[in-house]
Amino acid sequence: GAGNVTRTISGNDGFTSRDLLDKLSEVAIQLEIEKADIITISIGGNNVMPAARSSSFWSIDTNLADEGTANFATEYTAILDLIYSLNAKVTVISSTLYNPYNSANQPTGYSGDTQLHQTAEIYIDGIINKAIREYSHANYYVAEAHEYFLKNYGNLGKMGDVTFFYPRYNFWTWLFVRLTRDPHLNQKGQNEMGTIHNQIINALVALK
Predict the structure, then answer these.
(1) pLDDT in tens, the chain (208 residues)
(2) Which residues lie closer than 8 Å to 193 by C-beta, 6 or more apart?
(3) 150 near 97, Cβ under 8 Å?
């Protein structure tokens, strides 16, 4: 920990909402929840990512996306209900998912991303983020990553500034680049995400 702050990471890379719900059944994790002051959650990305990963994110398999998000709302509610049953006073900050596809102003070679953005929104914002926003508890807060990144980057064709999703290329490297798209946040994007969360935390501290 830093000072009087102790951080515990209970999730794993690649977790779906089902995986996280199963993880929360472990006694060791429940003990951590019982003594936690703040819990941050970022879940849902791996429910939809398989729908695009096999094509290196150049297309979206809507059947896989349907399958991956079919039970998200139910599982997400169960995750939060379980957390609050163990610790009713804990502050939970849950992040909405950002859409890695630019909505407009696509860089050269990525013109198809406008349609992909629209398709991804059906699942990212229409199902996953909807469930995240609709959950209600006195100590529950939503870090609105989706709207922040869309307004400041996606609508401007600049998601490549905060992710690894728009690698630069030339004629000789184009085929390689087609296989290396990565929707995860780069360091700048991670810093922005940290700021979104810190704004909520600072506001809560100011109220005390």
Answers:
(1) 445 666 676 667 889 999 999 999 999 999 999 999 999 999 999 999 999 999 999 999 999 999 999 999 999 999 999 999 999 999 999 999 999 999 999 998 899 999 999 999 999 999 999 999 999 999 999 999 999 999 999 999 999 999 999 988 777 777 777 788 999 999 999 999 999 999 999 999 888 7
(2) 95, 143, 145, 185
(3) no
SS3 of residue 142 by DSSP: strand
How many residues are there in the chain? 208
Q: What is the side-by-side order of every strand in the sheet holding 38-41?
A: 38-41, 91-95, 140-143
The residue type of 121 is: E
Element (H, E) at 67: helix 62-69
**Whether the predicted model's global pTM rises above the 0.85 cut:** yes
One-letter amino acid at 89 equals: K
